[in-house]
Specification:
It is built from eight helices and four strands, in the order αββββααααααα. With about 240 residues, the protein is α+β, with helices and mostly antiparallel strands. It folds into two domains: about 40-135, no CATH class; about 145-240, Orthogonal Bundle (Death Domain, Fas), CATH 1.10.533.10. Strands 1-2-3-4 form a four-stranded antiparallel sheet. This is CARD domain-containing protein. Keywords: Signal.
Amino acid sequence: MFFPPHILSSFFSLFWKCRLTVGITAALLRSSLNMGNAPLESSMGDDLRCTGCRCVLSPCTSFSDYQKQYLHEMYVYVYNRGQYFREVGHDNAYKCHTCFFKPIKEKEQRQREEQRRRDEERKTEDEKKIEEERKRGGKKRECNKTVSSTDRVRQARGELIKRMGEACLKTLLDGLQTPMSDGREVLKPREREQVLQSHRVIHDQVTCLVDMVYNKGDRACERFISLLRREEYGLCEELGL
């Protein structure tokens, strides 16, 4: 097929114009894409500084090194895997790693000191309470010296029946069978069996033991109280034994 020269000339002219247009468009597109694929911090130069110590920060050249995170109760942008930070909504307020964490560490230190102070105050208060309890217990014991052991057992009888446990009961039974300084024991083996076998309920067993010791007199009650204080010191202090 034969084309006249002027048609061929027009065709080649149009072809090169289109090719040039496509090349320019591609170049502009590549330039635009390159500009959009890097954070602003990639081209700030020496203007990229920490607002605290004014040191120059390293450029952030890729969005893979630019993340938004929630740290210490605030949203921040993290650059270059933690080299520096910027709180969301605070433009150009960059902080290096040291300046960013300094107030956080100071706050945590203040909280630790405050907690330590509260712990010390609580400890001092507890020590005062213990000392007051000790003094009250000493006063109770001074008062109890004028009260016979039988009267003290009688006064505490109701609470002992309600609050003494099985383990404590068996320990007392063993101790009351051990001979005292005069070689005599408070309970005979048959009396021990009477407490355990005649009654199946723990409260009834305690009632039987307390009444049995009470009926044996002041020396038996004194031995009973001495053994009970070894097992249930707190209960004895509360009941004035």
